[in-house]
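Notebook, student rotation project (T.W.).
Task set for the rotation: take a protein with a known small-molecule partner, predict the structure of the complex, and write up what can be learned from the model alone. Partner molecule chosen: flavin-adenine dinucleotide. Sequence and SMILES entered below by T.W., checked by me.
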Amino acid sequence: MPNFIVQERDQRFLLFEVLNVQSLFSHPKFSEFSEDVASMVLDEAQKLATEVIYPTLNVGDKEGCRLENGQVYIPKAFHACYRAYCEGAWNSVDISKEVGGQGFPRILGAAAREWFSHNFAFLSYPDLTQGAAHLIDGFGSEEQKSKYLPGMVSGKWGGTMCLTEPQAGSDVGALTTKAVRQPDGTFRIKGTKVFISGGDQDLTENIIHPVLARIEGDPAGTKGISLFLVPKFLVNKDGTLGRRNDFEIGKIEEKLGIHGSSTCLINFGDNDECYAELLGNEREGMKIMFLMMNGARLGVGMQGVASASAAYLHALQYAKERLQGTSIERFKDPTAPRAPIIEHPDVRRMLIWMKSHAEAIRALLYFTYFCLDKWETAANEEEGESWRGLVEILTPVCKAFASEAGFQVADMAVQVYGGAGYTQDYPAEQFLRDARIAPIYEGTNGIQALDLVGRKLAMKSGAYFRGFLEHIGQSLGELEETPATGEIAKAVRKALGRIEESAFIFMQASAEGRLVVPLSYAHPFSRMLGTVVCAWLLTWEAAVAAKKLEEARSAGKALEVGEDKEAAFYQGKLLSARYFATNVLPQVEALFQGIQSQDLSAVEMHEESFA
Ligand SMILES: Cc1cc2nc3c(=O)[nH]c(=O)nc-3n(C[C@H](O)[C@H](O)[C@H](O)COP(=O)(O)OP(=O)(O)OC[C@H]3O[C@@H](n4cnc5c(N)ncnc54)[C@H](O)[C@@H]3O)c2cc1C
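Predicted structure of the complex:
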């Protein structure tokens, strides 16, 4: 089966030649991993993705989900996928070994998941289960762990994440679902949750719903929220399933894309009999849920990477095959043979834009996962804190920047296909529809930007942000000394300076009581930061590529592009970086001018004037 899903060579280059993830394998936690083992894992992921999961992308979209007599049915084709996925234990790669998971380094689990993320309607089921299992592993009592985790880790049971309510979307603190304390220490839940992915399905025999609710009498806002486990079927002491819990699926949403993912409205406790168990401490629900949400934000960023990669590879293949017009040299000759559209400079403009963005956001996501592993395996607290700082700053940017780029690349893929891209004869239109959800769920991109500006910049009195600037600044110092990347590294450094200046403008405006300035410019700032980090990572990659070409030349191997695949790959990396630095990075300057002006037209405009 050909691979039009992941830029496979780029993936391995990034892992093993740039980030050098091999350095993680010397840590006792990952001692059973090596480059060979990691390579084998990726080979297996590729096989499952291309042979089993990719073929269900379109049929899942066409069949969609249905609700019959209170039970949700998902696309039939997803059942075989799910079985193969669980048999390969892909559903537990990030879960700790102590509770039966695989305990992969995060970066390796993420790289494997890139292979599956192009079909995120399917992936929503095992991914949310893994996230819910993480919560129980991290915060559950021993009894809860032994009661729920074996079923979830094996894939026999599913899991979800129930935050959103009709009146409480971005504003989670406005939730009204209530929890009533019972004499035996358990609770009864009553309320309505909407948009719950995998809220019901016919894949697993039970579903464990982590539900945010407020215990009667607890304060309003996020501080009064607790987290509960609400199983679809109650679990008896001997592990068998008991009565059906008291909640109903009110409807499933008809959506723009990800039709194979069931998005459910759930009414909990219409008969006041919805059993629930507290997870963790009372009123710490938001803190606990953030653990799952941070992992899920990176997961949504990976959806952006996967959408971009798959849309790009499909468009590239089409551009090589579709004949239209003639080559530039013979454009006046009506008898000239028709040329594949990849020969036209304007099509190449689109292709290099897509390629550089797909590779840039892959680098952004993988680097952040790598920092997460470095944080978890750090030799001491100080070192751990420096990696943690990068994760904290980059997580909202990974979610927002990569999900937007994923959609934009999918959009450009449709353009490369021309009219064919707008039809259902090709997958480009589905990539576009499916990718549109990523900037919305897991906290909209507007909310991610507010998290970055309102919370992350000031975290630890600004130490994380300063550490972030220093980390990139130091790396740029080396890249400036490298002949192949000197010029572009200087441009990246100038843009990095604009980030620092913008943060200063926000700080000053806030100190003067003009909070409206950072609130108005949070999203442009988040885009600036994403663009600069991507430009830096592509420059780093270019320096490695230049070194590889130089080493090959010194060893007497005359690597010629056109004759040698590796030479072509490395040249592609050099040109991607140059393109991004010269054509995309300058946008940072334009965004900075907006911030510097502190123009508040949007805020000043009267509602009537918007007409
Ligand atoms: C397909 C799908 C699957 C989903 N899966 C799940 C799931 O599994 N579990 C779950 O709990 N939820 C899920 N959601 C819900 C999703 O997380 C919410 O839709 C999202 O958080 C936004 O909330 P909302 O739709 O109420 O929009 P709103 O909060 O009403 O936002 C509307 C607009 O206003 C902006 N906005 C709102 N408040 C502010 C503010 N304070 N400052 C600036 N801008 C603001 C937003 O950025 C957005 O642009 C899913 C949604 C969809 C569509």
